[in-house]
Amino acid sequence: MSRTWCSPLPGGVRLAVQIQANAKKTEVVGVLDDALKIKLHAQPIEGKANEALIRFLSDTLSVPRSAIALTHGQTNKRKLLEISAARLTPDGVAALLLGEAA
What we know:
With 102 residues, this protein is of the alpha+beta class. The chain has one domain (6-98): Conserved Hypothetical Protein Mth637, Chain: A. The protein has 2 helices and 6 strands. A hairpin with a 2-residue loop joins strand 3 and strand 4. The longest helix has 14 residues, at 48-61. One of its GO terms (cellular component) is cytoplasm.
């Protein structure tokens, strides 16, 4: 299945996400257009929401924080992240983040 929000890269995957800061809890909402919507329990100031996003993805995907790079959208709610982990595939990421069968 083609996932526009998650695409393969050599040695990892690229994620397109849309975040909503100041949520009551951090959670994945679902796919919105061509991005994965994630609510974050963090303020959108001084990079706190970006840090919370990287921490959440690191924990959920079982990769070190250093393997996650925020490549676009540092100050925008839409962001592109590259995750360096050869074992990750788009289907595997969807299974971990959305609870879908891989």
